[in-house]
Amino acid sequence: MSEPIVVYGFETSNNMKVRVALGYKGLSYSFQTINPGDRAEILRLSGQYLTPVLVHGENVTFDSSAILRYLDVHFESTPKLYGGSVQEQWAIEDWELFGRKVLADPMMAVVHTKISGGVVSDELKSRCQDEFHAAVEHIVLHMEGREWLVGGHWLTASLKRSRT
Fold it and tell me: What is the pTM of this model?
């Protein structure tokens, strides 16, 4: 597909994840910054309020994980994001769930408290800091002696295929 790729969003981890994936796959795109306080354009494009939103020709995809899967399906000749086997894909999805739940929950507890007008107490900050530290420690322990969270051999093969 030669249609331009446009990503709508603002600076969040999910928007950055999509932009890193596009760069990793070597795909050209434009990034349209939206005002987080005015999501009318996001709603018009996708029927919902969350970013990122990817527009590629007639296709509109939202949710960073759905966008990454879209990129793997529609740009098959580029390096893969989801591994080279069923086992690697399951492992990647497990890590994705870990990131969305265990790693992000402490941060989102603070964000949601602030957005709703609540007070981020010292107790909440301490609990969230402890939970986040434990999540990061889990990743560090898993990475010991490894270069990748999952696999790694498929990356080399994908890069070789994309250069031939």
Answer: 0.73
